[in-house]
Each structure stands twice: as C-alpha cells, then as structure tokens.
C-alpha cells in the first residue's frame, strides 16, 4: 500500500434518508425527493465534503398494489427522473461527480449514450452511468412486459447494450469538431466513425449527434452481486458498489471481483470498489443505538411484514406479530435474493424471534454502522486498511443531518489520518478517482518518441 492511497467517497441520496421511517423524523423535509432546492443544498454540502460522487438510484415504476403499506414506506413512489435531475445539478455544482441509474432492460442504447454524453458536457466531465438490469416486475409492466425477462437474458442484453453505448461514445474523435470558418467545415468528415451493429438484441447503424464526451466515456458503475453480475462488472465497470456487512465478506467480494478482471485484459486499478456504508452518527455510541432503535420502532407493522415477506418470498399478512413464524410457512427455496432469504430463514431457526422482533432486526444483508464520528472514521479506516474497499458509498439514516455531521466531523478526521483528500485534485470525475480517460478505439496512438542517444 502506498502512502498516497486515498479513499473515494460517494453519496447515495434518497430524499429524507436511508432509513425507511426517516420521512417521519421531525428533522427531515418530508417532500425532499421532489425538491430541487433540497438536492442543490445537499449536493453543495457533499461537494464541501469533497465527495467524489453524488449518486441517484432508480427504478422506473410506482408500486400499484399494497398501496397503504407503500404509502407508509414510499420507495420510488415520488422521485425525479435521475438524468433530468443530474443535468440541473450540473449547473449548480462544480466538482462533484454526478451518477445516476438507467436500466438496460427498458431503454435503447442510442438514447442513453446520448443522454450521458450530454450530461458529461453539461457538467464538464463529471457524469457516471449506473448500469442495472432491474429486478422489479412493476417496472416491467410499464414497458410492455408482464414480468421481467429471466436474469441471464437481462444480463446478456446488458452486455450487448453497454458494448453498443461505448461504440457510440467513440463515433466521433475527440477533435472532430473544428468549426473552421476558413475551410467552411464545422467537423472533419474523416473523424466520424458510424457504428454498424447487428446483434441479438439491437440493430443500429449511425453515429451520435454530439461531440465526444470530455471524459472520453462517462464513468460506468455497477452493483451486480450474482456470478453473472460480477463477470459483467469485471469486464466493463469502473465503479462497483458492494454491500457486505463484515470486513471478511467485503474482502472476499473485493478479491473475487478484482481477480476476475485479468481475463478481460484489465488492470485491477481500472475498477474502484466502493463498499456500501449505512451510517448513523451521534454524540455517543449509546445515543446512536437509541436513535436507531427509535427509528426501527417507527416502522409500521404493515411495512415490517411487507418487507420481510418480500424477501422471504411469502405473504405474512395473516400471521400474529408477537409469535414466531411457523416452520411450515417458510418456502422450500428462494427465487429472488437468495442471500436475503437464507439470512431470514437462519434468523427464524436459530434466534427463535417473533415476527415483530424479526422485522425490527432485519436490515437486508447490510448493517447500519451506528456510533460517534470517531468510531465511523475508525470503521472506514479498518475497511480501507484491510483492502476490503477502495472507498465507500455512504448513505445516512437521516438526511441531511447525517451528511452534515459526516462533513463536519468525519471528513476532517479522515483527512488528518491522511486517508482522504484535502482538496479536489482533478476537474473530472475520472481525474478525481484516478481512472484513465479511454482512448477512442478508432485513433491509433501516436508512436512513443524515439530515445535519442546522448
Ligand atoms: C448501492 C447500490 C445501488 C443500487 N442501485 C440500484 C438502482 O438504482 N436500481 C436498480 O434497479 N438496482 C440497483 N441496485 C441493485 C443492483 O443493480 C443489482 O440488481 C443487485 O445488486 C442484484 O445483483 P444481481 O442482479 O447481479 O443478482 C443497487 C445495488 C446497490 C448495492
């Protein structure tokens, strides 16, 4: 490990905070998720904290059943479309990277290639695209499908999709647009490279109608956890969000993913793994624990049942809250998130918890780190020093309170320890992350200058 190794920081932003009951907390702005002023202030605060990336997750769907429960847990029910939001934030910020999710299952490569090049220009080189295949039938039904295509097929489409987007990003050389009033040419015709693509999912013959992105290619993010998802990330991603509860499992994931890159001719440094860190900061560890428990108890039983039932892949709505889930109600196998399913089954069998105790304890694989600012700094340092992450995807239980405390108390501490930058070192997201700018595939690199014998 070199002395210069610094951690990268991203912020996962969702309105009132990461905790499902955060919108009920009196310090939050309940309608933050559609307030541009809220996003502006939050992005500027993250920029003051020298974060690399401001990130917006997305699923293109409102839930249309079980509405009372979703009204009490309003995930993606009332949010901005990410690229539109990020384009506005591009004009209100100057250094922080702007990343957003767009699904490859419900869009066309040409639209998305164009959107992210535009965002990269609007932000002067700060755009990042989170490539997801989506895992939600509510979304599928908005795009002419009854349900999502099978997992393997979604990833096969994603692979062709990203390959095509990258070809489009190279459809103009960097210096193609010359605006030469003497010759009367706006662009050099030799520097357009139209794409001719006929694949399994897409046919495309054409070029983008915008010059090449400041970053060459906007940064590609992924968060796939399955074997297929990891292969895809090893081949194409430049940032990966991981979500592991312990340093040991984080290390296993880190080594596994980076170990897969060699066969694609990639260096491990071409990919930054950012570990997801749900965090709650308070003046003492006990106070943080108490705040967390108070938030957990604000989860309505209807929501607790729904979220637990979703991951246990069964309907729990008829079961009493204060009794254990009977063994015969546990499905034999999982079809969705196997890790979540196995974790719940293990808690049912070993801890003998009641349904209420179960949903109060269950946190979908990760575990909110609760403690003082100093303890949060220790935790980040432990992960970073162990080599389990290149940086962190922070999300705070209550926003903007969590971010305010992090910027005021944790950032100076990790700077003091030499783990984090004290000023932005680059102009673009790639420069700040230490990712190289991709050369255009159609441009032959100039030969290295000949060494002249002295
Ligand atoms: C930090 C983080 C952010 C994510 N953001 C999104 C998102 O915005 N939209 C989405 O559909 N899935 C999102 N996911 C889910 C992943 O893209 C992926 O579908 C999931 O991890 C399962 O991986 P798999 O399909 O390889 O099994 C996110 C996951 C993580 C850890």
TrEMBL record:
GO molecular function: monooxygenase activity; oxidoreductase activity, acting on paired donors, with incorporation or reduction of molecular oxygen
Ranges in a coiled coil: none
Residue ranges of domain Luciferase-like in the record: 31-316
Classification via Gene3D superfamilies: Luciferase-like domain (3.20.20.30)
Pfam families on file: Bac_luciferase
Lineage top rank: taxon: Bacteria
InterPro entries: Diverse_substr_monoxygenases (IPR051260), Luciferase-like_dom (IPR011251), Luciferase-like_sf (IPR036661), NTA_MOA (IPR016215)
Alphabetical UniProt keywords: Flavoprotein, FMN, Monooxygenase, Oxidoreductase
CDD domains recorded: Nitrilotriacetate_monoxgenase
Positions bound to FMN: 58, 101, 151, 155, 226
Protein family (similarity comment): Belongs to the NtaA/SnaA/DszA monooxygenase family.
Record-linked PANTHER family: ALKANESULFONATE MONOOXYGENASE-RELATED, C2H2 FINGER DOMAIN TRANSCRIPTION FACTOR (EUROFUNG)-RELATED
Name of the protein described by the UniProt record: FMN-dependent oxidoreductase (Nitrilotriacetate monooxygenase family)
């Amino acid at each position: 490990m070199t002395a210069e190794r610094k951690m990268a920081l991203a912020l996962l932003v969702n309105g009132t905070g990461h905790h499902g009951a955060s919108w009920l907390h009196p310090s939050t702005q309940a309608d933050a998720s559609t307030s541009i002023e809220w996003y502006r202030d939050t992005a500027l605060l993250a920029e003051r904290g020298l974060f690399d990336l401001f990130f917006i997750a997305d699923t293109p769907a409102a839930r249309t059943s079980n509405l009372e429960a979703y009204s009490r847990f309003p995930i993606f029910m009332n949010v901005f479309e990410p690229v539109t939001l990020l384009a506005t934030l591009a004009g209100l910020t100057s250094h922080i990277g702007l990343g957003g999710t767009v699904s490859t299952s419900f869009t066309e490569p040409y639209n998305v290639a164009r959107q992210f090049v535009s965002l990269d220009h609007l932000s002067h080189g700060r755009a990042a695209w989170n490539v997801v295949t989506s895992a939600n039938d509510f979304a599928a039904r908005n795009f002419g499908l009854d349900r999502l295509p099978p997992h393997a097929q979604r990833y096969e489409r994603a692979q062709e999709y990203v390959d095509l987007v990258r070809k489009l990003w190279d459809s103009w050389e960097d210096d193609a647009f010359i605006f030469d009033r003497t010759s009367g040419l706006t662009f050099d015709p030799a520097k357009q490279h139209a794409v001719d693509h006929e694949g399994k999912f897409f046919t495309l013959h054409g070029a983008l109608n915008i010059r090449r992105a400041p970053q060459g290619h906007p940064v590609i993010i992924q968060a796939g956890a399955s074997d297929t998802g990891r292969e895809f990330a090893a081949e194409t991603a430049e940032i990966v969000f991981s979500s592991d509860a312990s340093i040991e499992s984080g290390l296993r994931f880190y080594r596994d993913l980076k170990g897969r890159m060699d066969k694609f001719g990639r260096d491990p440094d071409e990919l930054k793994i950012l570990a997801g860190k749900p965090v709650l900061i308070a003046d003492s560890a006990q106070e943080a624990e108490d705040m967390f428990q108070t938030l957990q108890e604000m989860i309505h039983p209807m929501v607790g049942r729904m979220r637990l039932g979703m991951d246990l892949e069964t309907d729990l709505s008829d079961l009493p809250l204060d009794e254990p889930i009977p063994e015969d109600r546990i499905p034999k196998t999982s079809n969705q998130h196997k890790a979540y399913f196995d974790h719940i089954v293990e808690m049912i069998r070993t801890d003998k918890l009641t349904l209420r105790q179960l949903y109060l304890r269950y946190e979908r694989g990760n575990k909110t780190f609760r403690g003082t600012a100093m303890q949060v700094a220790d935790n980040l340092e432990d992960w970073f020093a162990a080599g389990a992450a290149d940086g962190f995807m922070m999300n705070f239980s209550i926003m903007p309170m969590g971010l305010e405390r992090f910027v005021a108390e944790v950032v100076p501490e990790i700077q003091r320890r030499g783990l984090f930058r004290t000023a932005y070192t680059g102009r673009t997201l790639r420069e700040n992350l230490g990712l190289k700018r991709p050369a255009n595939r159609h441009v032959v690199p100039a030969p290295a200058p000949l060494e002249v014998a002295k």
